[in-house]
Design a protein that fits this description.
With about 120 residues, the protein is α/β, with parallel strands linked by helices. The protein contains five helices and four strands.
């Protein structure tokens, strides 16, 4: 039986606890070039490495959603704010030690700007 095209992957960037939680949920994959769809950030990870990992995930055509811990997104805010593609969609999420702050989420602010209060009546 022929198999249809596969769906797109979810990628995750964050601290070890966040990434491992998602990996335990089954999102971990390697593409044909053996690149993972996840990136663990620790105290030794440079901002340049985070930025490069984010850009690489954004370029992949097999990824539909990138989940990034908001505190990690803050470290590369200039890159996240300059990302304007629809797919992969970038979503900022909380981590164990850093709660979500909607006022810092540039993607959410951009989405809110697309609607008026009349749209919700």
């Amino acid at each position: 039986m022929a198999q249809g095209p596969r769906g797109k992957l979810i990628a995750v960037m964050g601290d070890e606890d966040t990434v491992v939680g998602f990996l335990m949920g089954g999102i971990g994959e390697l593409n044909k070039q053996r690149h993972p769809n996840f990136f663990v950030v620790n105290k030794n990870t440079s901002v340049g490495e985070i930025e490069e990992a984010f850009k690489n995930l954004c370029k992949r055509d097999d990824i539909g959603i990138i989940l990034i811990s908001q505190n990690i997104a803050e470290m590369i805010r200039y890159v996240v704010d300059s990302y304007h593609q629809t797919i992969p969609t970038v979503l900022e999420i909380p981590s164990k030690d850093h709660p979500y702050d909607a006022s810092k989420d540039s993607i959410l602010r951009r989405a809110k700007g697309m609607f008026t209060s009349d749209d919700f009546r």
